[in-house]
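Example 9 (inverse folding). The structure is encoded as follows.
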């Protein structure tokens, strides 16, 4: 069973203890992300004059926006991956088909060479018989 971890992080200038099954490094990444978002919002004109509830709502909206953009990007990557998997499957299938065709062509070529050799032998026999008949 996974061990529950805790870590103290600084978010918005306040020390907060985060807990969960993730690593301390993960908690620090979350805190850094939150601090970047808070910093971005603080740079907006008029943000500092907003009531705390409005600030929290804007922060939540920004994080939610990032989440939906990331989710859409993941879906796009998954579709690309599925498409590439299908293309790879098709290419492997085509490769196998071409290998089979090559083997068949080699067999046909070998059969033709064998038949040619038999016919050349037959021609030599017939020429020999003809030479004997003409003597």
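The amino acid assigned to each position is listed next.
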């Amino acid at each position: 069973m996974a061990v529950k971890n805790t870590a103290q992080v600084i978010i918005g200038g306040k020390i907060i203890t985060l807990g969960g099954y993730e690593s301390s490094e993960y908690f620090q990444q979350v805190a850094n992300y939150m601090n970047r978002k808070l910093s971005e919002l603080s740079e907006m004109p008029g943000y500092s004059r907003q009531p705390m509830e409005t600030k929290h709502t804007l922060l939540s909206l920004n994080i939610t926006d990032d989440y939906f953009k990331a989710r859409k990007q993941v879906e796009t990557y998954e579709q690309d991956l599925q498409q590439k998997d299908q293309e790879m499957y098709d290419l492997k299938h085509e490769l196998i088909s071409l290998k089979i065709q090559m083997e068949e062509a080699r067999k046909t070529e070998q059969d033709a060479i064998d038949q040619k050799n038999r016919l050349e032998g037959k021609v030599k026999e017939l020429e020999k018989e003809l030479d004997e008949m003409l003597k």
